[in-house]
Task: inverse folding
């Protein structure tokens, strides 16, 4: 019985296309949509807040399937 760990395989994905960075970007997009929703100044920002949050959520779901 060997106690050695198998070697981790290096991902061939580009560094910017990995999960960590893209999840952070999706989280920021969701936060921007949230801020757009709760600001009292511009009706156009309020109008597009749902679309922005929906796009960030869809991006987060897709990106969560990417490798580390």
Result:
């Amino acid at each position: 019985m060997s106690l050695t760990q198998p070697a981790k395989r290096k991902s061939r994905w580009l560094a910017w296309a990995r999960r960590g960075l893209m999840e952070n970007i999706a989280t920021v997009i969701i936060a921007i949509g949230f801020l757009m929703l709760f600001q009292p100044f511009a009706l156009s920002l309020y109008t597009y807040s749902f679309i922005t949050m929906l796009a960030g959520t869809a991006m987060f779901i897709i990106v969560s399937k990417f490798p580390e």
